[in-house]
Amino acid sequence: MYSAKQMIVIRRDLHMRKGKIAAQAGHACVEAVLMALAREERLSDVVITGDVVTLRENCRQPTALSDWFEKGVAKICVYVDSEEALLAIDRQAKEAGILSALICDAGMTEFHGEPTYTCLAFEPRYPDEVDPITGALPLF
What we know:
36% helix, alpha+beta, Bit1, two-stranded antiparallel ribbon, four-stranded mixed beta sheet
């Protein structure tokens, strides 16, 4: 089986600055991983050694999340060109039982004060679980 990966879907149609893209994707990644850790009741298993974050070994069955931490925290960025497409991906993930963090920017620095959906990230999952949803999307 392939290693788990975290999919990040970014709206390209917004023409965000590079720093804005990085910040929005960061928000999504952190939120999705925290959601997955909480669902698996693994928040207390997070170990920080220097600048390396791992999960404490325990007697639990390995999951995509623990595999992801163990094998390199892979993140794959793809894009869509509309809010509708982003929301459709979010719906598909939820229907498949995959946690997804949909980010709505407050619009204070871009988007003229309008709250705007910018990106989403999935919890770390195996390719056979996420590729049916994001596999056809172009790399960012």
